[in-house]
Amino acid sequence: MSSLWNNRISISLFGESHGTAIGVVIDNLPPGESIDLEEIARFLARRAPKKDGTTTSRAELDIPQIMSGLYHNKTTGTPLCAMIMNTDTHSVDYSNLSKLARPGHADYTGALRYRGFNDVRGGGHFSGRLTAPLCFAGAVCGQILERRGIYTGAHIASIHGIKDAVFDRTNVTKEDLLAVRYKGFPVINTEQGEKMREDIQNARLGQESLGGIIECASVNVPAGIGSPMFDGLENTISQLVFGIPAVKGIEFGAGFLTGEMVGSQNNDEFYVDENGHVKTRTNNHGGILGGISSGMPITLRVAIKPTPSIARPQATVDYSAMKNEVVNIHGRHDPCIVPRAVPCVEAAVNLALLSHMLDYPNFT
Ligand SMILES: Cc1cc2nc3c(=O)[nH]c(=O)nc-3n(C[C@H](O)[C@H](O)[C@H](O)COP(=O)(O)O)c2cc1C
Ligand SMILES: C=C(O[C@@H]1CC(C(=O)O)=C[C@@H](OP(=O)(O)O)[C@H]1O)C(=O)O
């Protein structure tokens, strides 16, 4: 299945970047959950382009129209469908791309997979635009989780090597997550954020694009959710996070650094805290052992590649004529995807956690 994810909760994403609308159908949500639509709008606004030269200038309102599944602002438990209209498309920018593949984008592989019938305008169904309905779904799940004390938050860890401060993996709190949530540019250290913004603006002026890393944490996840082998929390989170276009890597806890440690450095020793809870003194395991939550914060980092569509001419092929060519890309592209992908990562993690929480004994 392509854009259908089904794991207790299911989401089906539909639409193309320059089609009439994009949207999502979410099924198997718990019934009777209040959904604050203003809070959903705030979540979607964090993903929306800004007017400061660091994002695409495409201006979409991104107002979700709820077609089903909410009654008196509460989930009915039957399919919740939200549609978001596409209103600011410039399809002429894509007129040269039906046979010329943009390096780094999905034009070539999409044409192979769909025998040339894929809609290339704005990236079609491969567009980052599809993360708007993903964020809608993740925001709905986030509200259900937060009512139970479970908070997820993310920030830009680095862009093009410029680093933000980090979450304290062992002691990160809900307050730490909320402190960054509604910042216009989602970093902990504002000065470092300014350097990143300047770097992004310079990249755009130099017909370049930048990538980076997003750090995400979830707190108050009860110990004991998830399953081994193929239905672990790492599996589910990764599957959803890789649904975000431009994601190229993920690591949990100390991640790839664990490959450089010895056992006594990497192991997180257990203890019982003053409230009688089992905790670990460090959190290299990122809150997940054997696919199952340990009760420690769940922490992960996600690598985002530089935006494929850059303004300078690039070598490519005309795959209908099988000729070498040069492609000039038009359009209004993000010089860096990372800031806009921060809420997308949160959305993916919210979906994964709620889907596993439904298995939690006495989930109410
Ligand atoms: C929020 C968001 C915005 C994006 N904006 C652009 C863009 O403006 N131009 C572009 O070429 N790619 C953009 N992308 C990335 C492409 O959609 C993505 O690289 C492409 O579909 C190929 O998928 P892959 O990189 O996962 O292999 C964006 C991705 C996200 C998540
Ligand atoms: C519209 C959004 O991002 C788009 C994602 C995108 C891509 O190739 O992924 C390419 C651009 O599309 P267009 O050329 O039509 O402006 C971005 O603007 C959005 O995220 O809402």
Could you name the CATH class?
Answer: Alpha Beta
Give the beta-strand count: 18
Order of helices and strands: EEEHEEEEHHEEHHEHEHEEEEEEEH
Hetero groups bound? flavin mononucleotide, ligand EPS
CATH topology value: Chorismate synthase, AroC fold
Distance between the termini: 30 Å
Instruction: Identify the strand order in the major beta sheet.
Output: 1-2-3-7-4
Radius of gyration: 21 Å
Spatial shape: globular
Please name the CATH architecture: 4-Layer Sandwich
How many H/I helical runs? 8
Domain module tally: 1
Structural class: alpha+beta
Question: Biggest β-sheet: count, sense, barrel?
Answer: 5 strands, antiparallel
Mean pLDDT: 96
Proportion in β-strands: 15-25%
Low-confidence stretches: none
Binding site for NADP(+): 47
Enzyme class: lyase
Cofactor: FMNH2
Keywords: Amino-acid biosynthesis, Aromatic amino acid biosynthesis, FAD, Flavoprotein, FMN, Lyase, NADP
Describe the protein in words:
It is built from eight helices and 18 strands. The chain is an alpha+beta fold. The chain has a single domain (4-357), classed as 4-Layer Sandwich (Chorismate synthase, AroC fold). A five-stranded antiparallel β-sheet has the order 1-2-3-7-4, covered by helices on one side. A hairpin with a 2-residue loop joins strand 5 (70-71) and strand 6. Helix 1 (37-47) packs across helix 3 and helix 6 packs antiparallel against helix 8. The two termini are 30 Å apart. The model has no long low-confidence stretch (mean pLDDT 96). Flavin mononucleotide binds next to helix 8. This reaction introduces a second double bond into the aromatic ring system. Homotetramer. Its cofactor is FMNH2.
